[in-house]
Amino acid sequence: MLTWGLVLLLGLGAYICKVTGLVVIGSRRLPPVVERCLALVPAALITALIVKDTFSTGQDLVLDARAAGVAAAALAAWRRAPVIVVIVLGVAVTALVRQVSGGA
Amino acid sequence: MDADEEDAVALREVAWACLSLGAAVGVFAVAFGVGAVSAGGSVAMACVMSLFVFTGASQFSAVSVVATGGSAGAALGSAMLLAARNTVYGLTLSKVITGSLARRLVAAQLVIDESTAMATAQEHPRAQRAAFWLTGGSIFVCWNLGTLVGALAGEAINPLTFGLDAAFPAGFVAMVAPHLRHRLGLEAGILGGLICLVLIPFTPVGVPILCSTAAVLIGIPARNADEAEAMPGTAGVP
After folding, report:
1. Predicted ipTM of the assembly
2. Do residues B173 and A71 touch, judged by C-beta distance below 8 A?
3. A57: helix, coil or strand?
4. What share of chain A is helix, strand, coil (3-state, %, to 5)?
5. Which of B 73-132 lie inside 8 A of A, CB atoms?
6. 3-state DSSP assignment of residue B68
7. Could you read off the pLDDT of A31-73 as tens digits, one per residue?
8. Is the pLDDT of residue B6 over 80?
9. Chain A positions in Cβ-Cβ contact with residue B24 (cut-off 8 Å)
10. Which residues of A touch B49 (CB under 8 A)?
11. SS3 content of chain B, % helix, strand, coil (to 5)
């Protein structure tokens, strides 16, 4: 459940991250190894989010209509389709497979 | 053409690129608005989040974790790990964004993937500054308008019927694609995904996402230093 506490804490935290780099530390540099690892966070974490949102419901691993939708989205992204095509295709294929298979 | 005219033409091209990028980001924002409301948030919560957090991947991540029953702590943790890269962007931009403290404090809110990439893609300091403010500004407007539209729409429809539960993973796919186009990013992505998959049945919701970030440790060996130059979001941004 999304709550006000989470929204406000995250707002504060995200701004602190931005200000720390731009204003507080400024032109001094972090150790290269730290910058390298931080640059890899989106690759690791977003891929994990895709896995979770596609193959799980709570703590159960499942294979349902979402897998087909996300596979279609991945194919589109790999072929360098625009963002809107990737998202709409993912959503449409999921809805279609769900309708055809008759489940939610 | 004299130098001033050439400058003006170059700036106009930069402006177009920045503004069209803003429109593309609006699509993500609509998906975010729908998802935030589906996760039990109000329209106001979704909008305040976009205004104050204003870093897309973190917002998506936080909502995705709580939507599936994860704790607020796990949601905040994963979102903050994603937000940490904005610190590195800030470092990169600190040479470009100068001026009064107040100006830099406002600029800080606009330090995101896209504004950093567009600014560092320019050659001259003037074009870099213009690209930063134009991209940051247009994305700020589009991101918040898109969130409002998505949140209002999300309240009106049943997300499952329209396959909108797939909007988040599909959005993540579009978001992560550029990060997986180089070897190190691809390895980190595969490892992160596997860690998550293995942990899902055994740990509380949200924990697999936090643990997946251990995959970034493959960036430690020094032999990966050259590879890192080519990664999006680092000092070597194209």
Report:
1. 0.88
2. no
3. strand
4. 75, 5, 20
5. 75-76, 78-95, 97, 101, 104-105, 107-109, 111
6. coil
7. 889 888 988 998 999 999 999 999 998 889 999 999 999 999 9
8. no
9. 82-84
10. 7, 10-11
11. 75, 0, 25
